[in-house]
Amino acid sequence: MQEDVIKLSPDALGYKDRGKMKWMGMMLSDHAEALKKQKKASQSAVIVPKEKQTLEDISASLYKSYTSKKPLAIQLDMIKDGNYLPDTEGLVKGFKGSIVFIERRDRSIRQIRLEDIRHISWIDAASWFEKYQRQSVSY
């Protein structure tokens, strides 16, 4: 006599797999550690002060970025912990009085006062938009 073999899967018994949710605890601690290392590395990097530009040069660069949608890097005239802050990279999205609105790669908007800008340099548009597009893709 032949016996029937019945295979029961967890799905057949009503088990619902939480998928990635059960791994979040491990991922969170690894991610937090990686962020700490990245922050420590960025804080230890010495940022060289760039040449202070005139208000006219700064205004012309901001206007050119706004009209031609060219990305730029802005060094602020601010020092934190003995170093200048990292450059803010992005596109000029608009102005309001002496406030400039910069759209960064993560699509967040940063407000910068015109008098806080020390230096503006241009970024290679092809590489910036390539990185911009890669980061804005969501799965």
**What does the largest sheet look like?**
5 strands, antiparallel
> Rough shape?
elongated
Helix content: 25-40%
Give the H and E element order. HHEEEEEEEH
- Count of separate DSSP helical elements: 3
| Average pLDDT rating | 79
Q: What is the name of the CATH class of the domain at 55-136?
A: Mainly Beta
How far apart are the termini?
A: 53 Å
Instruction: Report the sheet-strand fraction.
Output: 15-25%
Rg calc = 25 Å
Q: How many E-type strands?
A: 7
The class by helix and strand makeup works out as alpha+beta
Low-pLDDT stretches: none
Which features does this protein show?
single chain; alpha+beta; five-stranded antiparallel beta sheet; two-stranded antiparallel ribbon; 3 helices; about 35% helix; about 25% strand; elongated
How would the blueprint of this fold be written?
Elements: H1 24-44, H2 55-68, E1 72-76, E2 79-80, E3 83-84, E4 88-96, E5 99-103, E6 109-113, E7 117-122, H3 125-136
Summarize the structure in words.
This is YolD-like protein. It comes from Alkalibacterium pelagium. The protein is an alpha+beta fold and 139 residues long. It has a domain at 55-136: SH3 type barrels (Roll). β4 (88-96) and β5 form a beta hairpin. It is 34% helix and 24% strand. The strands form two sheets. Strands 6-5-4-1-7 form a five-stranded antiparallel beta sheet. A two-stranded antiparallel sheet has the order 2-3. The model has no long low-confidence stretch (mean pLDDT 79). It has helices at residues 24-44, 55-68, 125-136; strands spanning 72-76, 79-80, 83-84, 88-96, 99-103, 109-113, 117-122. The longest helix is centred in the N-terminal third of the chain and has 21 residues, at 24-44. The radius of gyration is 25 Å and the shape is elongated.
